[in-house]
Amino acid sequence: MPDQAGLLTRLLERIPPYGASADPDEQTRSALRPLVERAVALDSNLALLPPGESAGSGNACPNCGQPVGSLRSPYCSEKCKETAAFVRQFRNSLANESIFEPERMADFGQKWWHLQGGGYPRRQLMVPAKTIAKVIARANGACEICGAPATEIDHAGSG
Fold first, then answer.
1. Half-sphere exposure of 17 toward its Cβ, with a 13 Å CA cutoff?
2. pLDDT over 50 at 104, yes or no
3. By residue range, what is the domain housing residue 136?
4. Average pLDDT over residues 127-145
5. Which of 35, 80, 122, 150 has its CA 20 to 30 A from that of 15?
6. CA distance 4 to 91
7. DSSP string of 5-68, one letter each residue
8. Are residues 60 and 133 both part of a single domain?
9. Domains of the chain: total
10. How far is it, in rounded angstroms, from Cα 102 to Cα 25?
11. pTM (2 decimals)?
12. Are 109 and 150 found together in one domain?
């Protein structure tokens, strides 16, 4: 397997800059750019997300180092669990070089975007404007969860 720093540099060359295209897949892939840039800058054995000071010790979350209140999971929250899973999958995809497949890269960009609190923009871009208008009209112009005026369909269930 090639060295990780070389793979990351090669990957960075294939990730489009954010805003360079209106194509939803390219926008989604571009979400990975800051993450990969950070990993290239760190160049420390692919430490994408450095753990907290006490990570892995006692009842501390192995992702962030915060205290864990449950014995059912080693993670302090669902977000930490999802982030750790993302890092493991990203490392594996980098090692077997499947990350270079455009669809795989877009999937990782989508997941990373979600983990950073950005939702699922790729999925939203695939919904026709007429469908969005019908959903908003069906909900009487208000969010079905929080009651705020509805302008988009971002946190409604998918069925």
1. 2
2. yes
3. 127-159
4. 85
5. 80
6. 9
7. HHHHHHHHHHSPPTTS-S-HHHHHHHTTHHHHHHHHHH-SSS-SSPPPTTTTSTTB-TTT--B-
8. no
9. 2
10. 8
11. 0.65
12. no
